[in-house]
Every structure is written in C-alpha cells, then in structure tokens.
Design goal:
This protein is α+β, with helices and mostly antiparallel strands. It has 3 domains: 41 residues; 155 residues, Ribosomal protein S6/Translation elongation factor EF1B (Alpha-Beta Plaits, 2-Layer Sandwich); 112 residues, no CATH class. 33% of the residues lie in helices and 26% in strands. The longest helix has 65 residues.
Length: 390
C-alpha cells in the first residue's frame, strides 16, 4: 500500500469514526436525554397544575367554612355512614338496615321537634334517598361524595310556632337544611280562614358523608365546638342572640299584632289603665288638609284619626282651636291648641312646646321636633310662658 493510499484510508476511517460516533451519541445519549427532559417538563407542568387546583380547592373550602363554620366538624355532624352494631352483617344487608333505621330516627326527630315547638297534626314522609355515583374515565363507579336523605314534613301552628321550629331545627348539630318552606293560612270547613293558623310544609335534605364517624344514634354525643347559628357573625361572637319571635309583631298573614293589654279591674274607683302606646296612637293621626274659608275669612285645618276612624276634626284659630286625641279606651294621649294656620302649615301648642305640621303630616313623628325660638320669632309667635310652666 502506497503512502497516498495509507493517508486516504486513515482519513476515511476518521470520517467513519466521526459520523459513527456522532450517530451513536445521538442514538444512545442525546435522544434519551431529550426524552427525559421532555417528560420532566410535562411532569413539572402537571405538578404545577395540581398545585393550582389544590390552591383553588383550599380557597373554596376556606370560603365555605367562613359562610358556614359548622362544616369544620363535618365528620361528627354528618349522618352516620355506618352503624357499629351491624358490622357483622353482609355489606348490602348492613347498608339496607342502617338506612332504614336512619329514616325512622330522623322522622321521629322531626316529629318531636315540631311538636315541642307547638306545631300540631304533624306528618313526616321520607322521600328519595341517595346520590348517583360518578364514573371514572375507565367507566368504573366512584364512591359518591355524599348521600342525601330527603323528608317532607307537614304541620299546623301559629307564626310563633313556625319560628320556634326553624330555630330548633338550625340548632340541631347535623348536616341538614330546609330546601323549601311553604306557609299558608288554614281554613275551616266553611272556607273561612282560622285566625292566624298556618299550615307549614318543609322539604328537608340531610347529608351522609363517607368518612364521617360511625355511631349508633342520630346526633353526635359531644362536639368540641358547639356550632353557632341564626345570623352568626364570626367577628361578633359576643353579640347577644337575636329574638326572632318578634316576627309575629309584623305577621305577613295577620298584620300587626299589638301587645295584649293588661287586665283591667272593673272597680269604678280604679283609674283606667293605658293599654295603647302613645306613639302607636299618634302615628295614625294625620293633618289631611289646609283650606281657606271665604265666609269667615280664615284658614281652617282638618285632622283625621285613621286608627279610630269617624269624622274629621275641623280646626281653626277661633272657636275650634283646641283638640284632644284619645286611644281606643278614651285615655288621653295628647291635648293641644291651634296657634296658627297658614297656607302651607299649622302650628300647635302642647305641653309647653310648639310643633309645625304640613298637609299630609302625622302627629308622630311631627311632635319629635319642636320649633326653636328663632323659628317662632320668624313666624311672629310669642311663646306662651304660662303654658310652658303648665
């Protein structure tokens, strides 16, 4: 082999080694490393996506707990998923008997609760039960996030009884809620509405959560923290409980219900007992009009007691300048004198103070704002010192 052939052979072998080495490097080093790097990036992206999903779920859980703090103890507040006394039975039979007992216990609980609150003629009917289990991508059924027991309760009572029922229900330490409530006035056989008697229909859902504590009874025996309910505000934990029974004062079915009057003895020597509040009487007495009497050349006013009804009081600054407002038992609520009547207002004097009423005003709240000395001076009225002392 000549020198030239040796050089060419050596160069060819070098080129083959170079390309062969590069091919082997690409095949056994670069491609595996690139594949690992790609998979690593995908894994990092999936991990970040999972972290983002976890952050969203944690925020949702935090928001839910702020709205309903009782959910922090869901493992105890849930209906029991299993009964320890039935653990020796087959799973299907165990679940069947447990759900049957749960329905019975909850029906008894609702009946007792409504009866203790004053609701009568109570009937409770179990409705549909359960929640369809979602499926995975492979078509296999997953365990449902919760199971739901539904009940329909019907009873009759007054508005106070309805409020007590709602209050007692929300105080019960269970994961349940009233989905719908219906209230309607009850009529007798002749179709006449019975005074204040309501028929209440409740649709109630109670939740059973997998992973909750197993127990035999319906309610948990003890809780670390008693759930706060009824307009609970975590920022105002020391706020006194609200009295929801005052709702009966403005009953939407029967209207305003005044406080029952005290018993008044029929002894003629016993002074009358005032049975109505002064404000409640005066807020129905209205200045209905201001008009000019052409014959007598003066302004006149008309005052109407819308609470008692009857004829209007015709007032002027001459012969009819004094008037008295009484309650339903003729107890005097206000005695006043008409001092001035103009085109736009009337001025009265009572208990040493002057008040202005415009057409359409009620005596209350008009008597909350007496006229000042400057206002009286501007009107040309000189305060009556004797009336003030009186």
């Amino acid at each position: 082999m000549t020198h030239r052939e040796k050089v060419l052979t050596t160069g060819l072998l070098g080129v083959l080694l170079l390309f062969g080495g590069g091919f082997l490097f690409h095949l056994f080093v670069y491609e595996p490393v690139s594949e690992v790097r790609t998979r690593l990036e995908l894994e990092r992206k999936e991990l970040q996506d999972k972290k983002n999903e976890l952050a969203v779920e944690e925020k949702q859980i935090k928001d839910i707990l702020e709205v309903n703090p009782r959910l922090m103890q869901w493992t105890q507040l849930s209906l029991p998923p299993r009964d320890p006394e039935l653990k020796n039975l087959p799973l299907d039979e165990q679940k069947f008997k447990h759900f049957a007992k749960l329905r019975g216990d909850y029906v008894q609980y609702l009946r007792a609760l409504m009866d203790n609150a004053g609701i009568k003629t109570v009937s409770v009917t179990p409705g549909t039960t359960g929640r369809a289990a979602p499926t995975t991508a492979q078509g296999k059924a997953k365990e449902p996030p919760f199971e739901q027991l539904t009940f329909v309760a019907v009873g009759q009572g007054k508005m106070d009884d309805v409020v007590r029922t709602m209050r007692a229900f929300h105080r019960t330490p269970l994961l349940h809620h009233i989905r719908t409530v219906s209230l309607d006035l009850v009529g007798d056989k002749g179709g006449k509405k019975v005074d204040g008697l309501l028929e209440m229909t409740l649709t109630i859902d109670a939740l059973l959560m997998p992973g909750a504590e197993d127990r035999t009874g319906l309610e948990p025996k003890a809780l670390a923290i008693t759930p706060r309910v009824l307009a609970y505000d975590p920022k105002l934990e020391d706020r006194p409980e609200r009295n929801y029974l005052v709702m009966n004062k403005r009953n939407m079915f029967t209207g305003f219900v005044p406080t029952p009057p005290p018993v008044v003895r029929k002894d003629p020597e016993t002074p009358k007992v005032v049975t109505e509040d002064k404000v409640e009487v005066l807020r129905f007495v209205r200045l209905t009009s201001l008009s000019w009497d052409t014959e007598r050349d003066r302004w006149e006013a008309c005052l109407r007691d819308q609470g008692k009804g009857g004829r209007e009081k015709q007032l002027n600054t001459g012969t009819r300048d004094e008037f008295t407002i009484t309650d339903k038992d003729d107890n005097t609520m206000l005695e006043a004198k008409v001092v001035m009547i103009e085109e736009q207002f009337m001025v009265i004097l009572t208990e040493g103070k002057y008040y202005r009423l415009r057409s359409g005003d009620f005596l209350y709240p008009a008597i909350r704002s007496p006229l000042s000395k400057a206002e009286l001076k501007a009107m040309g009225i000189t305060p009556d010192e004797s009336a003030k002392e009186k």
